[in-house]
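Final report, Chapter 2: Outcomes

The project's central promise was a pipeline that accepts a single protein chain and returns its three-dimensional structure in a standardized token representation, suitable for archiving and comparison. That pipeline is now operational. To close this chapter, we reproduce one record exactly as it appears in the project archive, with the input sequence first and the structure output second.
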Amino acid sequence: MPDPTPDPHRDVRPTLEAVAARAGVSRATASRVVNGGAGVRQPLVDQVRRAVEELGYIPNHAARTLVTRRNGAVAVIIDEPEFRVFSDPFFSRQIRGISRELNAHDAQLVLLLVEGSGDFERVTRYLAGGHVDGVLAFSLHTDDELPAIIRRFRVPTVFGGRPGHPAGGDAPQVPYVDCDNRGGAGEAVRHLVSLGRRRIAHIAGPRDQTSALDRIDGYHDVLPDAGRELVADGDFTAEGGARAMAGLLDTHPDLDAVFVSNDLMASGALRILRERGVRVPEDVAVVGFDDMTSVAEAAVPPLTTIRQDVEGMGRLMVRLLMERLNSDTDAWPESVITPTELVRRASA
């Protein structure tokens, strides 16, 4: 004879039938409301939603996908090695903005890192499998395979940062969100000029990324006669900034200011200046870019820098993607360029 004692571990999650009964509607109506279908009058929608909340019902993901043809997931693809993604506060801040906005849209973030060319095959397989509704891709390089992969599978996409090349052919131009890199760089250099600095160098980011190229252009907008020897290449890391600063001091001991293409490199540059006994800002003034407060405020001295709203840009990327996904037309959203501002601290 069966044991009549209730099993406390038994699955007692409410069913869709229970929701329909509580709301006083048919199961089909409850299913359309729960899974995002159309054609239900608002009073009935409200009844079903109240029943869902009262019962603590959790919708079945597979059923929702069948109704909406959506997976409720978005791939975030970063073309950088793992150590950079998890050590550079720029990426954590942008991912935080993306995650918060996706949460507001009840969508899941799927993080895909591209460490090398072999990873593109894995990304291709994943996108071809239709696992996500769209893609947010950033830190692209000019020889990146991602734009071609995205065009091939026609995945709705928004880029973080201006891509280095057009979509090509008849493909629509993929929208992007970026800051005014060139204008911000120009503001940084104009600030140094306003301080009376005359021998101003630049530590640039990788030249296969448009943000670095735009910041070089902003530097030359203000100092068109500055020679190439005053521009040292870095790699957006603190170590790269240190190497570039050491090289500049070796070849140009008379420089009195440096504009650095991001805050991490600026922190490395400041370390080398301290080790060489160069006073900042008395001997050499330093301005960075990004306003990563965890880096800029901890620098010695605290770093004057150009602020871009990295978290807000992540949110904007999601909004543009959702606009595309929810559109009834083939129109693509316009790209967005966000403003920058100079944040003054003690280094310049």
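Archive annotation: The longest strand covers residues 73-78.
This record, like all others produced under the grant, will remain available to the consortium after the project formally closes.
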